[in-house]
Each structure stands twice: as structure tokens, then as C-alpha cells.
Queue: 3 jobs
Job 1
Amino acid sequence: MIAIEKACAKLNLTLGVLLRRADSYHELDSIMQCVSLYDRVLVEKSRKVEVYVSGADLPRENSMYLAAKRYKEVTGCGALVRCEKKIPLEAGLGGGSADAAAVLRGLQKLHRMATDEELLKIALSIGADVPFCLRGGLARCQGIGEKLMPFAAKNPLYFVLAKPKAGVSTRALFAALPLPRPKAQNLQAMRALAQGDATSLAPYLFNALEAPALTLVPEIGQYKKRLLGAGALAAIMTGSGSAVFGLFASEAEAIQAEAELQDLHWVCRCNSV
């Protein structure tokens, strides 16, 4: 038996950084949305922990390996994992987190040996975004990512993603992050999402990491301008970058924008899921 999972990328519609904790983690307040761009993850039962990846060069102890290894430590159940990568690396799209979450979901389908509490503990031990990716959808995420407040948007959202060739190291960016950062207007953004109005949502798209990331990868600003020039209601960097996304009023406008931006290093049209 094989469990086949979609490891969906995530966008930070908002990202506020509140403070640096004593344990060196940062307190965050973010609205995250899963989108239709995904890696394909296949999980099989095994006595060992083995992970094979196509489409990207990952270290042996990648997020999927850690997820399978820690699940085995808790339950005794190993895994043979195969992943077909589509989500670019060092993009802020949560590809590694989504892959780890997909492995955990797959293992649970095959074995059902971990409790919800154990699964969440494993997820958080791998990365701050893994608990959100484990659930998917749309949620306000607080703490270091473990406090989730799921909610629903009235209408689907349409995006065009674009990533410069250079990536951003999340660890390096947070290590040099000056505090305090401007705050995200999350309540207003949540209200606009609930009302289903992309035009009303646009002014509240915000990323507190964007300005510091621009000093590392100036192309982020250039890609934002291109997205806005192609008709985006708003354009911001997602996560720690370097990918940026534009929000569009309709699918048709997103399709047209994607066609206009084919000269960029990497472009992808997607929608909320």
C-alpha cells in the first residue's frame, strides 16, 4: 500500500515578527494560505527510513527524513519516501515544511499509530511552519507557528508567484533581523478574506521580513514591480523569500499576467486551496 500526498506550498498573506524569545525563536503573527502548487510525496511502509528526491538536490537529513525518523522513534514504524519536487528551494514557500507534513500524513494513513498530540509535537520539532502545513487551508498562525486559528475565506484567491534565481537563507535573515518590525494588520486582513473581496484584502498584504530581505536579494523589489505592472492588486514577498506573489482580482487576469512574465527566472500561477 502506498499513501500519495500533495505537499502544498504556502503563502504568507501577512507576516508580523513580534519579538525574539529567550530560546532564540521569534514570536510571529501571520496569516498563511495553502496554494495549488505542490510537491508529490509517496510514502510506503518500511522497516527502515529511506528518502529519495527528484527535482532538487537535498541533503540526506532533509525535512522528510526527519519526519519519518521521528515518527519511527514514536511508533516503531519506518517509511520509504519518494518526493517529486516542484516547489523551489529558499523561496519562502514552505516546500520543506509541506514535504515533512505530507510524510506525517502519509504515515498516519498507513499506520494510525501516533496521537494527534504526538503528531503535532513531531511537526513542530521539524519546523515552525510544519504544524500549519499538516492541517493546510487558511489560518492565523501565532507563537512560533504552533498556535493555529483556522478560518475560511468566502471566495478563492488567485496568485502569480515569481522567484529570482538567488534564494534567501531563513536562518541568516532571522539572525540579522533588526527589531522591532512594523506590525501586520491581521484582523483587517481576516475581515476582508471573510467578505471575499480581493480588492479590500490587497492593502493589508504585508511582510515584516521583506525590507531586510531586499538588502540580500535586491531582485525581490524588481519582481514586485513587474507583478504590479502586470496588473496585481498588491505584491509582496512570502515568508523569508525570495519568492514574491501578486494577488489578482480574477483567474483570467492571473493567466494574462503569467503570460507577460515568462522572461523572469521562475513564474507560477496558482490559487488558494
Job 2
Amino acid sequence: MTALLPGFEYRRVDVDGVTVNCAIAGSGPPVLMLHGYPQNHLMWREVAPALADDHTVVLADLRGYGDSGKPAPDVAGEAYSKRSMAHDQVGLMRQLGFAQFKLVGHDRGARVSHRLTLDYPDAVTRLAVLDIVPTRHVWHNVTRDMATAYYHWFFLPVGNGIPEHLIGADPAFWIRSIVGALLGQGASLDAAVMEDYIRCFSDPRTIAGSCADYRSAATIDLDHDDETFAAGQKLECPVLVLWGTQGFVGRGYEPLSVWQEYAIDVRGGSLPTGHFLPEEVPELVIEALRDFLD
């Protein structure tokens, strides 16, 4: 992977028994960047080196993904709750010497970032979320269009080992199919990076962990989010929201209006892309993040 991300130093850090795989480069204020599904930290390969010019950039694999630890899923859903996944990342940054940091998340990583900023408000000074609206809003506003575009939100949580078995029968087909459906018009991913995503999903533990991630989102995470919302707790740090005009977030929601229900200081806008903003239009993402993080 060092060939795909030159200039970054790889480390494996134990956080309360869970190994977090990360890549680090640069110097200056720390920025933690968290990937989405079905990817790993390599999704930031075109963006992170530019940010490392004036920041210490930490790219981490979420638990259950990439080369991070993959705890066995539990019935209650706690092992892959966003609260547990956020705990990993705060612990990582603390072990690296960063009590406070800026945070950037895409897709699942943005959902972990949302919970992390709620649970550890003193740790995060700025938060950027890419191509999501809050999980709570999604589940409380299910439509036919949403169910069609995000069918995997309903497929992956199914029990009895069904999604694990079906994905495990042909992981490459699954990864190529779901990524292809979410890419913008004419966009494609680097072949070597796609092969690394497939490599990770060829491990049955990754399939199990990622299914548990979605299963928790539909159960324990929603409970946590409802509790937070009912208590009136909002994100207090500045929040940047970016989304693709060709993806469902851009078609199905008014992202800034939605996020204003969950955060005090919200800004951002759309980019001419599908779901995978950092891989489809990295130069535009770099520009937006530099303006926001500096």
C-alpha cells in the first residue's frame, strides 16, 4: 500500500484491544480522515498529500474495514456502534499525541465522525462531512427513492448470515457493483485501489464487520441518535457539508437545511460528482477542505 500512498508512514496502534491501521504524513495541526463503505483509507490518496503540506494528516481504517482489527459482531450491536467506532479513533489520536484535531469523514466515516464529535466535543475543532445527511434523518424519512438508491441499507442488516454468505460468494462482484452504481457519470476508480478494496472484502471478517456496521446503524445507533436529538444536543464546532449533485444526497435532500437541525454552524455546498467525491473530483475537495480547515 505504500506504493499507493507514497510519503506516508504506516502504523498499527492498539486502542483498548482493537488494532487501528493508519497512515501519517505532514506536520502542523492534526487532521483525522475517515473513509466510507466499501473502502479503506486509500480513498483519500489524491486529497491527503495536498493537505499534508501544512497539516499532520492521519488516515485511519475503521474497525471492521481495511487492515484494522475486526472484532466479532455481538447481538446488541455495540461492537460496531458508531460510539464504539468513534472511541477507537479518539483513542488513536490521543496515542499519537493529539488531544484536539480537525476531522473529515466520508460516508460511514462521516457517520462515525458525527458521533465522535457529539461524544467528544472538546476533541474536534472543525468537522467536514462528505455526502451524507445524519443517520437519524435518513431512517426517519425513508422513501421509495431512498430505498431504491440505498438498498444496501436494508440488505446488509439482514440476519441469519444471509448478506455475509452472498457477498462472500463473490466479493469482487459485490464491490465493483456497488461502487459502480454510486459513481458519477463517466467516473472510475484507479484499478490498483479497487483491487485493494476487493482484497479487504475477501476477508470474511471484513464482510461480517461491515454488515454489523449497517446493522448497528439501524438499531443501537438510531437509539443513540434519538437520545441525543431529544436532549437538544447539537454539534458545536464549525461543520462543512459537501455532497455530489449526481448522488442521492444531492437529489433526495436539502443537505444544509437538514444539517442545521443537528449543528449550530453549518456551511458548504455541492460538487459536480457522484458519491465518491474525494476520488472523483479530488482537486475540488482539496480546495474546499483547505478553505475550511485553515
Job 3
Amino acid sequence: MLAALFARVVPVRPGESAPTLLATAYGFAILFAYYLLRPVRDEIGAADRANLQVLWTVVFFVMLLAVPLYSAAVARFSRAVFIPLANRFFAANLIAFYAALVLLPASARPWIDRVFYVWISVFALFVVAVFWGFIVDVFSGEQGKRLFGFITVGASLGGIAGSASTATLAAHAPVFLLLLFAVLPLEAAARLARAIHRRAEAAPAVLRREPAARVGGSAWSGIAPVFRSPQLRHIALWIVLMTFASTILYFVQSHLVGEAIADRALRRVFLARIDLAVNIVTILTQALLTARILRRFGLGATLALLPVVAVLAFVALGSAPHSLALSTLLVARVLYDSSRHALAKPAREVLFTQLSREQRYKSKAFIDAAVYRGGDLLSGWIYAGFTALGLTAAAIALAAAPVAVLWALLGLRLGRRGEREAKH
């Protein structure tokens, strides 16, 4: 009965239910671990806000170092080894941070905090890149259109559960213990990855089993294809434009909320309402609509939908009267963030299912980690340049709208190319 009910909600075919649920649980575990730790990072950022731009720059360069190290592991080991290894590596790091916080003198705390801020910023992108690299290697492109929307539900639920757990535990346990608590879901993620791999090996008619030959190549061999391949180059540019839109929207939000709401507690309440609304709309869309939208409208239209939402959001924020600024912001953030998580993310991952294994793991990690963080860093400096020129938040929003139009056109082109390659 449960299998029949699941099949009515998610368009699974025979043999796909178990691996889909395992992949969903894997996504839940890694986001649960991250959202347990995110308030710790945000607290450090608030205390050391004068150095945030420096920390962001350090994060970018650490990411450039982390990607080839991961690529070296990909080249040497099977996915049954390096995927669990990546999750256990981060778990071991957390134990080391806990030991440092407990054993080192209090005078070392500011530097431990800064190292931890950089570490978790790398962790947040890298562990998700590892997850999706594995998922697109196991599931085909056709399966991705049907199943990736539901798999992302796990990540959304993990974020909610992690945030709620930290809110509950923070009042009853030392903050250091949160680091140890996050080790448990990372170990669960490692075990779930092994379980998915075993199912792929046992049922190659349902999932893509791993070839006998290793991925191979060098630690740097995943980077060059990003610049040589038109498809990878366009995906990387799509990511850069997405980070630009997201960063501009984030800074505009900070300006509007800071200007309209003086009380810090009321600000937190307003931002929490945005997060709650985003999570609700995202989960409903992921569970009920993502697969249908991908199949009905295709990759191109789905990838273009988020940029179109961004255009409308920027125009609305740039032209809304002052009395409606917060209401406009609320609607814009909910539509943008829910579209990014529920539609753009699954559609983008489908594109990677059509690439070679080396590109799925190595090039994808470079794009999802280094290019993503580089886009964040560049966009932050662009916003700082706009403000230095004297532009208001509304003017910056309007200036960003034409860039989002170009982003939408790129999404259409990416999707059409992806559909053509899938047919061949």
C-alpha cells in the first residue's frame, strides 16, 4: 500500500522506489548536518563582520585547493570509497574542531572561529557538490526529470530539521556539542551512499552501475574541460549569473530590512517568516510539481523560469513605493528562493547526467564549488562598487534586471542543447 501511494505522488517505475528514497535520505542527512552548524557560522560572521570580505576571499582560495584534492581521490578510488570518504573526512574535521575548542586556551578562540567560518563555507558547497556528483552518476537523465524534484525534498526537510534541532539544543547544550552532533548525519550520509552504490551494482537495469575502470585522470583534469566544452562553459556562466542575482537580491534585502525595521528582534521575526514561507512553497513544489514541469515544459523553460522570476523581482523592488517595500521583498524572496531550490536545482543537475564520468565528478565539483564561490565573491564586490558610485538599493535592483534577462536566454539555450544531446 505504501509503495502504491508513493508511486501515485512520485513518478517512479519498478525498482526505482528504494534508490529514490535512499537518495532522498542522503540529501536529508547532509543538509541536516549543515543547518545544525549554520547558526554557529552566522554567529561568528556577526561577531567578526569587519573581516567578512576577507574571509569570503579566503574561502574562494581554499575552494580552489579543495577541488583538485577531491579530484585526486576521484581518480584513484571507486565511488563506493571516495563518496563515503568525503563525508567522513568532514566528520573527522568536526571532531578536530571540537578538540581544539575544548583543549586550546580561550585566547585562540578568535582564530579557531575564523578557520571554522572558512571551513563551513567550503563544507556547505562541497558536500552538496559531492552528493549531486554521485546522484547524477547513478541516475540517468530521463530518471532525473522524474525523480530529482522529489530527491531535493530530502534536502529541504533536512534544512528544516537541522535548524529546528539547533534552536532546541542551543538552549540546553554547549555550542561546542553541535559540532559532535553533526558528525552523526555525516556518518549516515556515508552509509546511505554505500547502500545506493550496492543497489546500482545489483540492479544495472534500473540504475547506472559503476564501470570497472576508475574515473582516472589527474587532480587538475576536471578543470580544463570547463573552459573547452561549450556545455560546461555555459553551465558555469549560468551559475555565475545566478550567484550575481542571488547576491544582489540578498544585499538589497539587507538594505531594505535594515532601513524599515529598527528593532533587531523584529528583523529576525520578519526574516524567519521569509524562510518559513520559502521552505513550505519549496517542499510543495518539489513533491508535486517539479517532475511535471520538467516533463511538460522541458529543461530550457525550467532553467529560464528562475531568471524570469529574478527579472520580475528586480523590477518590482526597484519601482515599489516605500510603503510596500517589505511586502514586495517578501513575495520576491519566496518566489525566487523556492524556484531556485525546487526547479532550477533539479533541472541543472539533469544536465550533468549527460556528461562523461570525469566531468560529472571533477568538472562538476569545480563548477559547484569554486565557480559558485567565485561568483559570490565577484558579485559582492560589484555591489560594493555600485554603492560606492552612490546608487540606491532600488537603482541597483533595476540595474540587475537586464543581466537577469541575459541569464534567462542562456537558460533556454542550455536546456535546448541538453535536450538535443539527450536524444543522441
